[in-house]
Amino acid sequence: IVLDGREQRGAYTATSIVGTPLDPGRLAATLRYAAGVELGVMVEYLAAVYSLDRTAGANGSNLRDDTRASRAELLRLAIGEMRHLREVNSLLFDLHRQSGQGGAFEPALGIATEIPGGNGVAGPPVRFRRLTPDVLTDFVRVEQPSWTVDGLYGNILATYEAQGMVAQASVVRSIMADGADHYAAFR
């Protein structure tokens, strides 16, 4: 069953997301940063995908099968980040259209230089790294709900909910739910 935008596997408890609504100018800047973070983790996940040797082990060996499965799962997660980027840019397009400003919409396509670290601490820089146990631990930390990337969306969600913008809030909740799925996959 899916409730609160997340699959529930046990007894349901309503999710409480903490966030402070942002002013309109800050909302756009925060969404642009979120898009850059999505791009940053996407390229990190893709680098990890292509660091795995798909020819490792003999045909039919557990190593070859495990490597192929790991590559497929990492690629699925990177594609999820691509979808998040598109959804964030859709939210930005809505803001641009609602603002009444003329001119063409400029999508957010700049890569963040660092991934949020959580608790107000600066995170690590975006890097192309091969998949190692330490890198996997970093990926778990990045996707940990309400700590880093997921926490980035708390204020965005609070803003849309305070403004009664149900469709936009639903998009943000969907991104956050995907983050929980990514967290579970990396764990």
Describe the protein.
Helix 1 packs antiparallel against helix 4 (149-162). The chain is mainly α and 187 residues long. The protein is built from five helices and two strands. Strand 1 and strand 2 form a beta hairpin. The chain has a two-stranded antiparallel sheet. The mean pLDDT is 88.
Count of alpha/pi helices: 5
The count of strands amounts to 2
Shape: globular
Approximately how much helix is present in the residues?
55-70%
Mean pLDDT: 88
Structural class: mainly alpha
The biggest sheet, with number of strands, parallel, antiparallel or mixed sense and barrel status, is: 2 strands, antiparallel
**Reading side by side through the largest sheet, how are the strands ordered?**
1-2
Low-confidence stretches: none
* Rg over CA atoms: 18 Å
Strand content: under 5%
N- and C-termini, Cα separation: 22 Å
H/E series, N to C? EEHHHHH
Which key phrases capture this entry?
about 60% helix; two-stranded antiparallel sheet; mainly alpha; single chain; about 190 residues; globular
How would you sum up this structure in a few lines?
Helices cover 60% and strands 2% of the residues.
What is the strand and helix layout of this fold?
Elements: E1 2-3, E2 6-7, H1 24-51, H2 62-99, H3 133-143, H4 149-162, H5 166-186
Antiparallel strand pairs: 1-2
Helix pairs in contact: 1-2, 1-4, 2-5, 3-5, 4-5
